Amino acid sequence: MSDGQCPSCGKVVSPADCSVPEVAQSAIAQSKATQPAATQPAATKLQHQLSIPTHFDLFWIMFSLKGRLSLGMLWISTLISIILAQGPFYLAYALNADLNILAVLFLLGLAFTCWSSIAIATKRLHDLGLPGWFVFLGLFPIFSPFFLFSIGCLKGRTGSNVYGLDPRRIWSAGMIDEVL
Prior knowledge:
With about 180 residues, this protein is an all-alpha fold. It is about 60% helix and about 0% strand.
């Protein structure tokens, strides 16, 4: 509701300037109800645009190149990635599987580990405010120590950046909602 005539005092004012609190409250409530859906908070728009999950989504962590990943989630997801990639190989080896089956399982695990490592490192770089293509700097021996130190030890940027919302705030609230 825009500027108009107050039904109580007759003045042409905005709802915030009305002298009668009840009338001002109803005018503000009506103006909020008539706003289009496109006026969502910026955080919700950004979260929807980048498809950032509000809970622990293993598929998103392992395969998506979008969004941000906190330092703690880096170590948890790296451990899960290693278990998922190498677990079937070691299980088949323990069961004395055929060499061809072991070779296929090893290659599938290697492919999974390579892609998930790129996805996880990209999201960590995003959390540090850096572009994802910096992940390829880790392939050069001169940059590898700096790369591993930066994604594995440095705390990410607080608050939102161009790559998404702060993962520490999103997941802490989302996990609390899931538990309740």
